[in-house]
Each structure stands twice: as structure tokens, then as C-alpha cells.
Amino acid sequence: MDPFDDLLRGVRADGAGFSRTELSPPWALRFTDAASLTLCVPLRGEGWISPERPGEGGEPRPVRVGDTAIVRGPGPYVLSDRPSSAGPAGRAVLLVGTYQVRSEVSRRLLGVLPPVLVMPGNDGCASLLDFLDAQVAACPPGQQVVLDRLLDWLLVCALREWSEQPEAVPPGWFRALGDEAIGPVLRAMHAAPDRQWTLAALAGEAGVSRTTLAGRFAKLVGKPPLTYLTDWRMALAADLLTGSTATVAAVARQVGYADAFGFSAAFKRIHGVSPSEYRRTCRTDPDGVGGECSQA
Question: Of the segments 1-15, 135-149, 215-229, 273-287, which one has the largest average pLDDT value?
Fold first, then answer.
């Protein structure tokens, strides 16, 4: 179990907004809605992505055929046929998909990503584009499910490529995954959040002393190991509360608390409300997977 996998696992298209658009110059596509993530891929032609208000968020960046642009909502960004100083370009065909990131665990992904990223096309993702184009144009049975899964694949492919770029600036825990001592500790926490972890037990996973673990973990991740563990458990607990009918006591056990009172106190410290109140004020998506909290 990898923490980055955990972030991506809950980000799934489900009847996602998906379109194939043919555009003639001059054209512009504005990302100003409430989508958590918007994914855009030119199939023909090219465009330039930039902040809607010049000077906010850097210079226009080209998005060419096969590239994948990901915009972290709600923007506002504009994808257009030209930067402001250039003449009009040619026609373009764009695939655009949108995601709503509802769960607490998956929302952590939004804290990892920059406001906008553009990943060049690569062999691993390129084979998907022609098939996507064909699926959008046709109307086979189960088309929406197929499009959703293909969109998921394209998003994961682009994010995986981004995470391996030297210029990517992921959070401390993500960089720490490559550390020979801290990486195993992070993976152990994510694989078994219900285990009764102690600093000594985590140090055993790392193969170092408790003092060494505490200092190295705090330096790389930015917080002590047991604080990170609590934060992770509370994110999981929030999704269990909104995405299942399990009792508060059952949720507590699933995230490593034998005592529901201790769990409730920790949950309220992190989320600002009790587990029961969180469940009442959060709504679950139609499939009961994750939720979107009105208090967030």
C-alpha cells in the first residue's frame, strides 16, 4: 500500500463531465466552474493555458497534441488558441473531462498539485487517446462507464509522470517515500491504520532507533510520526462516516482506536466537530463512496 496510491484511489470519474469539442479560431475555453480537477487533452491543434487574469500564476504555457493539462479547481484559467501577443492559430479538437474530489482522503491530492500542470505526451499515455476519441464519437452500450475508466487511466498516467519530474514540488511525506527508513514507516501506517502503533513499533519498521525515527520523520515529513498517523486516521474516519453506515465505535476500531471516546476527542480536534455531527452535516455521493462536507 502506497500513500500516493491512496490519494488516487478515491479520485474516480463517475458520470463525469466529458466532452469532445471542435473549435475554430479565435477560441477560448475557460475553467471557472466548481470542478475539483479539470483534465484537457488536444487531439488536433494546440492551445495555450494561462491565468484568466494576466500576471496571476505565471506565463502562458503551450499545450500540444498528446499533452495533458490538469487544472486544480476552481481556477480561473483559460485555454485559448493563442497567447495574448500572438496571432490566431488553427482549428483544434479537445477532450475535456472534469472531476469532483469529494472524499477527505482524496482531497489531500489537491494539496499536492500545483494550480495547473502540463505533462508532455508519452508512450504510456498516448495509446489511450485514439481510443478515447473513438469512444466519444461512438455510442456503444455502457459508453459512460468506459469513458469514466479511460479518463481515470489518463489522469493517473499524467499524475504519475508529474510526480517523477525533478521540478515537481510534492509535500514532505511524498518525498519521504523514497527514504530507506521513513518510506517503510509511511507505507506501514497506510497499510494498517488500525494497528496499535507506537513509536517503538514504527521504529522497528524503519530499522532505526526511536530517537532517529522521530528526528528524521519530522525533518522529512514536517511533523512527528504519531501526529501524521493521527491525521491520516482522521481523514480515513471522515470518509467512513460519510460513506458507510458503520457506528462511530466501529469506525473508531477501523482506524485504530479501541475507545470511542478517545476517537471522538481526536476527531473533533482535527475536524472541529464530533463524528456524529460530521456525519449529519456531510452528504454522501449516490454510490455511498466518500462525501462532501458542508463544513469544509
Answer: 215-229
